[in-house]
């Protein structure tokens, strides 16, 4: 295309995009242009060496075109399209159609009058197609709804645009209109139900925005997920419900955010709302993830007010208080865990000490086990051939495990919210539905990663669908007009899609690399380079780049960085982590993660790319079954302020949203289209007189022939339109300009002839003018005279009327004054009468109040007097009752005491009468039973102690094994520990031998003393109690109850006397019976008998291994009440002295120890009376025959009572324990 010097053109400005300019000159290097666009405020700039692709033809009549549909532009090019949008935007007309697309430019102004909700009724009143009103999202929703009603086919509205363009708000606008138009007809109940469903859907928006939106550089409330909402209608076309599906939540934003950006809104609302204080969270500055982008403040979802709005929305859709509390506790746990960092610990990692509290906060909020969480953060389990191996994780891998947990948990939480909204709003219906796709726009950042590839793949797929749909519609229009389109080709981006999702595409190679154990991003990029470089024009990898590659998308060429792609594509969560969260005590948090699959049913794990591709295929399958409509949202300026327009950014968004794709499709066909009437009216000047009498298709054909356009490749005639390529348009315009030039020359010659004739007739014309002026002057003077007379008459009439009016006013004034005086006097009289009546009424009220107060005082005095009398009577009555109760109580206790004394006296007499006859057989039977019970108790205690020692040894052995497994580095110290253990064991053996020798010596001395004491006791008893005993067998001797024992001070009532003389049984060996006949020494008898108390007999301890039969001796028990041995002393001397470990030291004394202390209390008294510097503490022992040993007793084990004793007589138990190891830092 060539431009003439001095002609207007569109120039692609480096800062403002396409602006109006003028060609100054032209040379071999290109054009020299000067900008002259006053509307865009771009005037006077000169640019040289401008190539042909940076200029486009322009004419004056094209500059003011502002059609509602951009396809109606005369020249369909990027430049007039951008200018039309600019002019409409600054007239506050933000919606424009381009075929099936509605272009919505975000005004950042919600006060435009013709876009207020009050104007919605104008659209609702129209028929099935909007024809009278301006383009709007309402119009698109209106047309979509009536297409669904008329065709009974599901519809789809695709809303796209970059962050901050207004996609979410547009979706809300469409949703609100659908709710209104669906209830346009029907009963009041049906309308109310439809509006109620619409209100629920509106309530879902702040919840999903809170948990799924975040602040970005481009938008303060950017949706970081895609959603597809099926708005369902019944057979009558009334709104009944909706179902939402989410796509690709941006998980990386859970952990961190870029500079001047924020993570999801929910984290900030939690710490600033009331729930943060309830959960004991810290301020927002304490959490690293909240400060990752160094931007804590935002214009939306930033304060406690927004938090309360979100809580209110949750209540509206039916989320209970417990579920709300669990949701925020889950978010708080994520926030706390993201503060946890790790330090190196050998080959593994450990939680940094400074962040321990945040780990505990996460455990507290999630209600899980701390040990399990700590383990899952620093270890992983590898399964190789069904064998599990625990592997330690380095600090970087531990951070990856932490991030994987919080990402999966937050994604599960967001999915639960979407499901909750669906359960509240979704219904099963047999009617049709309208799909609303709020999808992320094309993204091209400084650093683009795996998420940007998935987003751009979605836009690439939708653009491919759009190209085919629009191109087919355009080709069908051409075919209906009879145009040959065999040579027209549609722009095709299928190779770009195959580059990403083909068999050897990016996703396939990435999944293959993820399955390899040692795969890496660089190896993946190398395979990608080998597979596509030079084979696919959409792929490019620069040689100087090590970890990036380029894809030439339909909108722009995007450079992708492959670092971290493998981990993002795997996004695997350990089964142990899933089980840990599934075991949470919180029933809601337990549902956020799915349970791990059993190993036998577990197949090949799907990657994130494979899952997203499956979702995208399913989405496109749904869209392909519907009739699509498009709304493209544009952000005009990054400052996000009204009436600001950035040409470059707007053009980039128009290209990425597919708007310019429509232009390209038109350019691929015939972009210049005019109906015959408009075409002929503009270009019939080319034919001149030949065009007389011609019209329609015939005249258009003649114009094209006159222009020399005979090829069907650049221009064709349809049934109603002329279709031209862009190349044919300048030719027709140039010939029209030449014809206009010829016609202007002819007009100029005709004009000059006319001027000559005018000058010749000028004098004649002047005479006629003078005559006409005189006539007009005469008529004007007559008119002025008549006017003066008329004004004078009107003045006289006004004076007369004014005088009459003044008289009437004066008369009325006098009449009013008289009536006013009369009314005033009457009012004074009425006021005086009312005042007198009021005074009388006040006096009556005062007298009535005095009378009432006197009567009230009299009633109160009477009431107080009556209450005082009643109180005195009640007091007298209670005193009488107390006296009666005391007398009856005294009488009752006197009678009871007498009866008890009588019973006691009778029992004592009966006991004295039969005791001498029944004492011997009863004592024998009781003694045998008591001995067996003591043996059983002793054996149980021994068995229990033995089992406890075995359990302790088993626990110590398990601890040693565990320490050996965990402390592999300390194996070198084991030999020194073992050698030390052998030394200690030998030392313990030697000390045990010495102890046994000392014990045997003490026992021999004790037995000798026993023989002497026994002989003296028998002699003394024989002399003093010969009248009460038989000289036959001392082992069966019985004693009567003496008077001293009956009146023992410890039992004043005499009831415990029988118990004090109850015999205790001692087991004696056969060898000890012969020695029991030895009398006591005289010195001992004199010192002991002076106490006037009976004695107890004991047996001699047999030697080890002796197998003498068991012999039971029955002797009376003597009570040393004058010098009783305290229980504490007995426990210390006779009971087990706990010197082993904390377990034995903390064990309370058993009942056996108390019975043993009572049984052996006499040796302490004997030792005290026999010698002041000598204490005797013998052990009770007996030789038990094998038949008497209970079943299950361990062979060769001594009874606990025969354990070794120290030099001072105390008993010490020893339990073999394993070697003691120094605890490592890991176990500290």
From TrEMBL:
Gene3D superfamilies hit by this protein: 1.10.10.820, 1.20.5.4820, 1.20.58.530, Kinesin motor domain (3.40.850.10), Myosin VI head, motor domain, U50 subdomain (1.20.120.720)
Keyword Protein transport in record: no
SMART domains, per the entry: MYSc
GO molecular function: actin filament binding; ATP binding; microfilament motor activity
One GO term of the biological process aspect: actin filament organization
Domain spans labelled Myosin motor: 65-737
InterPro entries linked: Kinesin_motor_dom_sf (IPR036961), Myosin_head_motor_dom-like (IPR001609), P-loop_NTPase (IPR027417)
ATP-binding is among the record's keywords: yes
Binding site for ATP: 161-168
Stretches the record annotates as Actin-binding: 616-638
Alphabetized SUPFAM superfamilies for the sequence: P-loop containing nucleoside triphosphate hydrolases
Residue ranges, annotated region (Disordered): 1188-1228
GO cellular component: cytoplasm; membrane; myosin complex
Keywords, ordered alphabetically: Actin-binding, ATP-binding, Motor protein, Myosin, Nucleotide-binding
Sequence similarity: Belongs to the TRAFAC class myosin-kinesin ATPase superfamily. Myosin family.
Protein known as: Unconventional myosin
Organism: Trypanosoma cruzi
